Amino acid sequence: MLRINEGDYSYASGLIRAKEPKLLGNSHFARMLDSPAAEDAIKVLTEADYGFGGGNASGIFAFERLLADEMKKCFELLLELAPKAEVIKAFQRRYDYFNVKVLLKAEFAGIEIPPILADTGTIAGDDMKRMIRERDYSEFTELMTGAVNEVYDVFARTKDPQAVDLILDKAFYRQLTADLKAIDSPFLWNIAEMLTDMTNIKMFVRARSLNKSWDFIKKLLLEDGTISEEVYFKNSDKSVEDFAEDIRKSKYGEAVKKGLELVRSGKNSSGLEKMLDDLFIGSIRSAKLVTIGVEPLIAYLFAKEAEIRNVRMIMTGKINGLPADMIRERLREVYV
Amino acid sequence: MARMNVNPTRMVLTGLKKRLRTARRGHKLLKDKRDELMKRFLEVVRENKTLREEAEEKLQLVHSRFVMARAEMNTELLEEALMFPKQKVELSASTKNIMSVDVPVLEFHTESDDAGDIYPYGFANTSSELDVAIATLSELTPTLLKLAELEKSAQLMADEIEKTRRRVNALEYVLIPNLEETIKYIVMKLDENERGNLTRLMKVKDMMLEQAHHYEYK
Question: Which of A154, A269, A272, A276 would best serve as a mutation to test chain B binding (most B beta carbons within 10 A)?
Answer without folding.
Answer: A269
